[in-house]
Design goal:
7% of the residues lie in helices and 46% in strands. The protein has 2 helices and 25 strands.
């Protein structure tokens, strides 16, 4: 079976003035798994040879519950993760809290923050101290598959699109990240994208009615029939966010990586809530690239034009996947007629 390539094209974007800054990824290091007690755990990390001046740092890892008060529901919670970064020159900054949820379930963290107004040297040994925002004596949380990251300033690019839930779609949305809500099924809007620059991205969803809604970020794919699979983060839009986000606004901030595929799902809160227009904005150091899969675009430039005819001839002569315009798994003269139909239909 021949397969056609998937091309990604940018949304309409705006590069903001230099005063609007984002954080781009400079370098990363993997570290060993850690279990964090209230006493904290300090981990030295060698960034020797990294010459960029940095203004921020980040963490990627899986938060796991090790020990705590499950019965009382007091923790440890992933929202209680705290990380202090100390550079080779002694410059120190604390990132707290990390994460966007309130749950004791296993939870993926991929977060970054601005730590210094004046850039600091990255070349040398850093110390990353993992701690908690609260200190019950019996709390132990763990981080698995951990990596730490250094970040630097970059011009901020912002892109906005309509994310009004589609009334023809239906799913049972997650309730936080640990279970499925009983307020559905509800409608949703799903936007698949990649980023052109690794770094910290803010994803802001604004519901015009100012009422309640949710947004969810998936990494690696989205299946509405498996709403907890690949769920990476979420944003409350009911005014109860731990980050003082107003009602009607759902906010997610994440460390996103070039080459990874993400899906941002904007969801109706409950089946008894009316669907209202929703506007989503992605801001970060690069563009959000949306998928463009169109048979007639045989040169994969994101545009259907007469140049695609010449590209189809080349594909026919080389038996390339783009030749197969009628999706029968073969490259034959019949595909020329199919290309004409696809070209006239547009994308």
């Amino acid at each position: 079976m021949m397969t056609r390539s998937l091309v990604f094209v940018p949304l309409l974007s705006l590069t903001l003035p230099a005063s609007a800054q984002a954080l781009r990824l400079v370098d990363s290091r993997d570290i060993a798994d850690v279990d964090v007690t209230p006493a904290g755990v300090a981990v030295p990390v060698d960034f020797s040879g990294v010459n960029d001046l940095v203004t921020g740092f980040g963490l990627v890892g899986e938060f796991v519950f090790v020990q705590g008060d499950l019965g009382g529901g007091t923790g440890p919670w992933s929202l209680d993760v705290s990380l202090e970064a100390t550079g080779p020159g002694g410059d120190s900054s604390v990132f707290t809290p990390i994460g966007g949820d309130v749950t004791i379930a296993d939870y993926p963290l991929a977060d970054g923050t601005r730590g210094w107004d004046v850039p600091v040297s990255s070349d040398g040994t850093w110390t990353f101290t993992f701690d908690t925002t609260a200190f019950p004596s019996n709390w132990i949380y763990g981080l698995r598959d951990v990596s730490v990251h250094l970040l630097a300033e970059a011009a901020q690019v912002s892109q906005t699109y309509d994310a009004t839930p589609d009334p023809t779609t239906s799913w049972d949305r997650p309730f936080f990240i640990a279970g499925v809500s009983g307020l559905g099924p509800v409608s949703y809007h799903a936007f698949e994208f990649q980023v052109t620059e690794s770094g910290v991205y803010d994803l802001t969803s604004v519901l015009s009615s100012g009422s309640d809604h949710f947004s969810f970020l998936y990494e690696g794919g989205f299946d509405p029939d498996q709403p907890l699979e690949n769920l990476h983060d979420y944003g409350l839009g009911n005014g109860n966010s731990p980050f003082n986000i107003p009602r009607g606004t759902s906010f997610v901030t994440q460390l996103l990586f070039e080459g990874e595929t993400y899906v941002w799902v904007t969801s109706q809160w409950a089946s008894f809530r009316p669907i209202a227009p929703t506007s989503n904005t992605i801001s970060g150091p690069g563009e959000a690239i949306a998928p463009f899969n169109c048979a007639a675009d045989t040169n994969n430039d994101g545009v259907v034009s007469p140049q695609d005819f010449n590209a189809w001839i080349v594909a026919f002569n080389t038996n390339a996947p783009e030749c197969d315009q009628n999706d029968d798994g073969l490259c034959t003269p019949q595909d020329f007629n199919a290309w004409i139909v696809n070209f006239n239909n547009g994308c």
